[in-house]
Amino acid sequence: MSHGFDAHRVFISAPGDLGRDRQACYDTISHINESIAMQAKVLMVSIGLRDSEQIVSHREITSDNVRWSSYFIQVFQDDWGPRDLFRKLFLLALECRDDPAAPMQDVVVCLKDAPHERNADVLESRRDLEERTDVRVIRYATVEQMREELEKVCASWAQAVIAQRQGAGADGDGAELMQT
Fold it and tell me: How many domains does the chain have?
């Protein structure tokens, strides 16, 4: 039985020891669902790996989940995870966003300050992310700063989905419906 919600996946990619940051992403999406999306029968569904080691043993399904997502959040400080697999997910998300046949609408990078970082490879990765012109980069020092900025981004996503849904009529006109 369908419950009538348009579900839009938000893949959260957060390698390394960024558990509090990752949880802030989940909490922010939940808040946007409660405050904006659900009353319009829209649901932002957060997905991702809570343990970096899962990506090694579940790489194919993880990649598929990125392909099936409408939005992608990359959290980065100093680590791309085992075998740089989180970087590969980020690049896959960019490919999906640029593919008109894929559902991916937007990719955001949350770049946590690393003022004491000296590793040349990490500094180069950070510089590459900061210089990207094809993604929105949220620079932050504290989890609360990230949460505030990410809330604006997620709210804009929900509002865009709601506007599109209203423009297409109550049935969503082809939007992905989640079944219960």
Answer: 1
What predicted TM-score, i.e. pTM, was given to this entire model?
0.89
pLDDT digits (tens, 9 = 90+) for 40-84: 999 999 999 877 666 667 788 899 999 999 999 999 999 898 888
Please give, one letter per residue, the 3-state secondary structure of the chain: CEEEEEEEEEEEECCCCCHHHHHHHHHHHHHHHHHHHHHHCEEEEEEECCCCCHHHHCHHHHHHHHHCCCEEEEEECCCCCHHHHHHHHHHHHHHHHCCCCCCCCEEEEEEECCCCCCCHHHHHHHHHHHHCCCCEEEEECCHHHHHHHHHHHHHHHHHHHHHHHHHHCCCCCCCCEEEC
Instruction: Say which CATH number the domain at 111 has.
Output: 3.40.50.10140
Token pair 């904006």: residue: 36
Instruction: Output 171 or 144, whichever has higher pLDDT.
Output: 144
Q: Is residue 1 part of a domain?
A: no
Percentage of the chain surpassing pLDDT 90? 74
Q: Give the residue among 145, 146, 4 at the shortest CA–CA distance from 74.
A: 146
